[in-house]
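thought: fold this chain, then report.
action: predict
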Amino acid sequence: MRTPDGTRFREVDDPTIFDGAKVRVQIKQSRDGTDPVVVERDLPGLEDRLEDSTSGGNYDGSFRTPTISHRAGPGALADSMLFLDWHGDGRGYQRHEYTGSPTV
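observation:
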């Protein structure tokens, strides 16, 4: 982009990357078969952090999630999923899963 005097600069925030982005965290109770979800929470704010950059175009931002807590007792585990909706692709949110931690 250019300023009125012709100086070039990069946009600090680029809203053309995503239409949406969020992290989903689940706390589950470990059981034989499928582990039931005890509590689940979508954590917003990720889209803004992913689209935020320095004036030099550096997108090395960080994202700190809010706390999710639940008295789950023994055998609890946690999973997270990343949902990305790329700008203009028409596919909506695409889910990206990660291997759960063996301990919470």
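thought: worth noting. Residues 46-51 form the longest helix (6 residues).
final: tokens above.
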